[in-house]
Amino acid sequence: MSNLNLDQTTITELQAIGRKHIQTAESNPDCTDLFDYWDCYTLENGDLIDYNISEANEEQPYEWSMCAYGLEEVLDDPGSTHYINTEESLTIPL
Q1: Is 39 in contact with 50 (CB distance < 8 Å)?
Q2: Phi and psi (nearest 5°) for 46?
Q3: What order of strands is seen across the sheet that includes strand 2-3?
């Protein structure tokens, strides 16, 4: 597995996104969809990465984690544009 290389500015922005999402999830504990959340983030150079914010415990105290993944273009599948490269990842400290 290789590390996804992100600059500190991007990591800081992802941390802010993660913390905001956690606030939303913890204030809406009945909405369990918020406890395993995936989304894309556009890097400064226009490339996309995917990130996941998840909670492992599902009870208080919550145990949150965040990880970013590289995305690869899919050229041979007309119904898809990217796939998540789980071999290229970075744990984002929250």
Answers
A1: yes
A2: 95, -10
A3: 2-3, 82-91, 64-73, 48-55, 36-42
Domain of 41 in residue numbering reads as 2-91
At 79 the pLDDT is: 64
Distances in Å between the Cα of 34 and the Cα atoms of 6, 52, 58 are: 25, 11, 11
- For residues 15-39, average pLDDT: 90
**Token pair of 43, please?**
């890097």
Q: Which whole number is the average pLDDT over 79-92?
A: 84
State residue 73's pLDDT score: 75
Residues 33-54, mean pLDDT to the nearest whole number? 91
Q: Hey, what are 83's tokens?
A: 């796939």
Distance (Å, rounded) from C-alpha 46 to C-alpha 19? 24
Q: Smallest Cα–Cα separation from 88: which of 74, 73, 68?
A: 68
Number of domains in the chain: 1
Residue 77 pLDDT greater than 70, yes or no: no
